Amino acid sequence: MTKKLTIAAACTALACAGAITLGLSSAPAKAGLFGSDKDKGVSYETFTDMLHLVMASDREIYTKMVVGRLAAKHKVIKASEHFEDEKALPLPAQMFRFGSEKVASKTDKFSYQLLSLWPINKQNAPRTEIEKKGLTFIAENKGEKPFYGEEELGGTKYFTAVYADVGVAAPCINCHNAHKDSPRTDFKMGDVMGGVVIRVPMK
Amino acid sequence: MRNKILWLFWFLVTLVGASAIAAAMYYGGDFRKLLLIGKTTSAHHQIELACDACHTSMFGGIDALQKGCVNCHGEELKAAHDSHPRTKFIDPRNADRVAKLDARYCVTCHREHQPGITNAMAVTMPDDYCALCHKDVAKERPSHEGLGFDTCASSGCHNFHDNRALYEDFLEKRHAEPDFKEVLLVSLRNWVPPVDPQAPAKPKPLTLTDADAPAAHRGDAKHTAEWAASGHAEAGVNCSACHQPRKRTRPDEWIASPGMEVCSTCHAAEVKTFTEGKHGMRQRPGLWTSRKDDFIGLFEDRGLTPMTPALARLPMEAKAHDTVLDCNTCHGAHKYDVVFAQVEACETCHADEHTQAYRMSQHNSLRDRETEGELRPGSAVTCATCHMPRHLARDDYGGEKVFVTHNQNDNLRPNEKMIRSVCADCHGLRFSIDALADPALIKNNFKGKPAHHVESIDWVVNRMRERARRREQQ
Asked: Scanning every residue of chain A, which has its alpha carbon at the shortest distance from the alpha carbon of B100?
């Protein structure tokens, strides 16, 4: 008798667990980022907006307070693409890329890059359709609003957001206008020079 | 009945066979050779019996292999500013490239135990691997129009990982350098440490009468005499420093033949780099051929024996085949003669054309002239000058120290690495690139001029001219 009861109890428990799992997995994808509860979840847009805010702030501060102040204003140190050989400061774009590579080596929950329609390093030109669309969108809208899209890469679906990257300091403009590999040489302060692309794999 | 016996027989044979293989794997030693599935690449062949150097875990798959690669080569790749780091390929936007060439893993291009398809630098990919992603390069660089798919990395222009002496701006800066620089001196040869007021006072140089070895351990008087004339005595390092490293706690202990670990108390960078190159890699820590805790404590911890020329794949002197390689092989206990270690020590074992041609080379005549006092110290170019160059190491607080790298392989893969650490001291970049791309010249130890010219530097100059012309027009 007790044996039968145990079996019945086990079956009920299994059924409940199954139902709960099913319920959890069918929760809306948009809300599924930090949990399965719709009310507690964060939308992909909010998530990438917040990430971008941190990236853009750090990037601007490095550009102005380190490179702009020490290299351009006080001229106590140079900033150079070949910062190791020349014992100089890494360029802001390199600083940004090192951060992005560090993140990539630690997590696959999101990834980000600084790309441009006018890249000095051709590897930073848009490669996917969404990147092209996004970079064109932010350039046309002068960076007033970000671009959100979805794409499939290597069998995984991604939420992809593109944020404008604006020239905030004179050294940005001067270097991009003068560099031998720069495809565009008429940048002005405040121009959209490129974009930060953030990708989040979708559940 | 007959079938039953056959089944039993089959079962027993399988069981015995499987146990033998497992025992070979765990017991280690030469039995492990049975398990090698194909000839191992050069250098790796030295450690092929320490299976778990590469197969870091039995069921870890490709990631476990990757861990093995990174354990030994990770730091080196970082130092080389790897042009194709893994992070580039785990980026989803490069998923299509990964589908063509999975550069997230070393073993995509460097497969081991595949002698039939192994090319230079242990590359097992067909030579057109660059073209998989860069076939449109001529659009951006018209000079590259029509170049063969196998010429990118084979003709002194590019390298998949290390382009520190090959990148465009580097070439641009040095394009006009003459073949021979004005001052022909090996940098760092005459380096003097910066004056440090906080450094402890230099110990008094020691003489023959200061030797502190107990009478019982004195041995041949020759040893003491050689020591008294060595750099050790000069620097105040007495017998006990090496033979009684624990003198304070164990005054009665005497180590007759102190090993690498004793040397490393003072020469840490030298010993570390020694275990990173072909001379000492078998003594790198963590290479086991058998582990005590692997199999219910039946076996003992056993590592690889030190390298001997008999194990080498390069031509070696027959009489030196059984010479065991440790610090004293080249430096000679007590004597520590750096001059001997620079050329003669190498010649004791190495019997290839490049080594044998050294005595007839210009580099050697510089050495002769320095010995005769005709040229300044630092003029000599020895085997060690190029293969064990001096490095200026800077610590996190700016402290400087020069050490001699004992990884003789460090600047050989690709050989353009040598440009920065060695050639550039005396030679222009154009000359250096050409010389290192000329196999015949390398073989005869650089007797004569490079027969070929690598055009990359001309293309860089053309681009500079083109730019200047455009600027003028504006």
From this structure: A154
Residues from chain B contacting residue A81 (CB–CB below 8 Å): 169
Instruction: Specify burial of residue B237 (Cβ count, 10 A radius: 0-12, 13-18, 19+).
Output: middle
CB-based contact B99 A154, cutoff 8 Å? yes
Q: What is the pTM of this model?
A: 0.88
User: How long, in residues, is chain B?
Assistant: 474
**Gap between the terminal Cα atoms of chain A:** 45
Residues 6 or more apart whose Cβ sits within 8 Å of residue A115: A124, A125, A126, A131, A135, A194, A195, A196, A197
B467–A108 CB contact, under 8 Å: no
**Inter-residue contact A91 to A67 (CB < 8 Å):** yes
Residues B35-46: b if buried by 16+ CB within 10 A, e if exposed = eeeeebbeebeb
**Does B86 sit within 8 Å of A153, measured CB to CB?**
no
Contact B81 A84 (CB under 8 A): yes
* pLDDT averaged per 10 residues in sequence order, chain B, 474 residues: 91 93 78 89 94 91 96 94 93 94 96 94 93 91 91 88 94 96 93 85 92 90 94 95 94 93 95 96 91 71 92 96 95 92 97 97 96 96 96 90 94 91 96 95 95 94 94 86
Q: Which of A96, A57, A73, A81 is nearest to A182 (CA)?
A: A81
Which chain B residues are Cβ-neighbours of A104 within 8 angstroms? 87, 90-91
d(CA B348, CA B345): 5
Enter the ipTM.
0.84
